[in-house]
Design a protein that fits this description.
By secondary structure, the protein is α/β, with parallel strands linked by helices. The protein has 12 helices and 9 strands. It has an 8-stranded parallel beta barrel with strand order 1-2-3-4-5-6-8-9, surrounded by 4 helices. The relative contact order is 0.11. The protein binds ligand G3I.
């Protein structure tokens, strides 16, 4: 009897307080998320607002910011060929599943990235395990089909849109297709096949071709030519993804207007899939560090230039919102960006709308102005 009184009198209230404080803390952050309007609310009449995430970021204070500001997510690396399918007979679902579960739990839309890319593709895809030689076109296409069918089927009904093929067009003026191993072994055929297999695995998923440097007229012309060619062959391409890795010196408002105008005339679903605005002049190739790269101060001058580019971007995204269904930022905050290691390894960049303390920056307040 004494134990019962001790439990009812002492332990129970303790447990209750404890769970109250935990759930109160969680409720507090989600309630705050509920209370305070975020980007997703400010742009709800135009397009969804997404963010690229890692499984780790969902276990930190960044999770609260994601719930407050965004209504869509993209796995930054977890669903790419290498991370999710490291060996022929081995899939690594943990990272992708944790992001899918978070999206489902919190009613966030989820974009899949990416089913076929020349980067982060494990060597086994192209190598005959018995001979070590390069595989034939038939073998590579079969491996690509198995990969796409397996991954798309697993996330059927959870992922609403896939970047099926990423960056297949060459940056070189006199070259049409990027000479990737997929292209060298299969020619252009791998692209149409990839879309066909993704569509067969999930007929409801929106299928995108995704690329960067789309503001370059010569590259844009090639991307549009390829998509028109695929459409003419009846290939199920539903959308085009403009990555949007831009900077304080590009694009100009005119460059971006003509880019969005050209792609809107394709009549496809258009999405900005990897937006960030570097505070350093735009470069497309990795390079060694130079003396000036040691100056990584985020000056007021750099911030004002960034504010202007973000303002131009969102003014035009709203103008073309009949064609643009989603705008996704590549990474959450300046706490960590892929641009901290590209084009110069270890040069801190500040390309996003939230600072390292997850506080909105000037560009945030500028773009949400009515
Ligand atoms: O996971 C390994 C880890 O085990 C290892 O200890 C560590 C050591 O280097 O590397 C980790 O892999 C890194 C991976 O990110 C996960 O963090 C790779 O080295 C690194 O190269 C990879 O960088 C990713 C990059 O794509 C690869 O090309 C960036 O995070 C990611 O933001 C970036 O995203 C691409 C889009 O997919 C396509 N468009 C361009 C965009 C920027 O490059």
């Amino acid at each position: 009897m004494k134990q019962i009184f001790f439990f009812v009198g002492f332990i129970l209230p303790l447990a209750l307080v404890n769970s109250c404080s935990n759930s109160k803390h969680l409720d507090k952050s989600t309630n705050q998320a509920k209370i305070k309007e975020g980007l997703k609310d400010h742009f709800k009449e135009y397009f969804t607002i997404g963010v690229a995430v890692s499984p780790q970021s969902l276990k930190t204070d960044e999770a609260g910011l994601i719930l407050q500001e965004f209504n869509s997510m993209t796995p930054e690396n977890a669903m790419k060929m290498g991370p999710i399918h490291p060996l022929e007979n081995q899939y690594n679902w943990a990272g992708g599943d944790s992001i899918a579960a978070f999206a489902k739990r919190n009613n966030l839309k989820l974009r899949g990235h990416t089913l076929c890319w020349h980067n982060q593709t494990p060597r086994w895809f192209f190598t005959d395990s018995a001979t070590g030689k390069q595989v034939s076109k038939e073998v590579l296409l079969q491996r690509l089909k198995d990969h796409i069918t397996t991954v798309v089927s697993r996330y059927k009904g959870t992922i609403y849109a896939w970047d099926v093929v990423n960056e297949a067009i060459s940056d070189k003026k006199d070259e049409y297709m990027r000479p990737s191993l997929f292209y060298q072994i299969c020619g252009e055929e791998f692209i149409a096949k990839a879309f066909q297999w993704a569509h067969e695995a999930d007929p409801n998923a929106l299928l995108f071709y995704n690329d960067y440097n789309e503001i370059n007229p010569a590259k844009r012309e090639k991307i549009i030519r390829m998509i028109k060619d695929l459409k003419a062959k009846g290939v199920p391409v539903h959308g085009v993804g403009l990555q949007g890795h831009w900077a304080i010196n590009e694009p100009s408002k005119e460059q971006l207007e003509s880019t969005l105008k050209d792609f809107s005339e394709l009549g496809l679903n258009m999405q900005i899939t990897e937006l960030d605005i570097s505070v350093y002049p735009k470069e497309h190739n990795a390079r060694e560090r130079k003396a000036e790269d040691y100056d990584t101060v985020f000056t007021a001058e750099k911030e004002m230039k960034q504010v202007e580019v973000y303002k131009n971007c969102f003014d035009l995204f709203k103008k073309y919102s009949k064609h643009i269904s989603s705008v996704t930022f590549w990474n959450i905050s300046d706490r960590r960006s892929w641009l901290d290691n590209f084009p110069v390894r270890g040069r801190k960049d500040y390309p996003l709308l939230f600072d390292a303390q997850l506080k909105p920056k000037k560009a945030y307040w500028e773009i949400i102005k009515k």
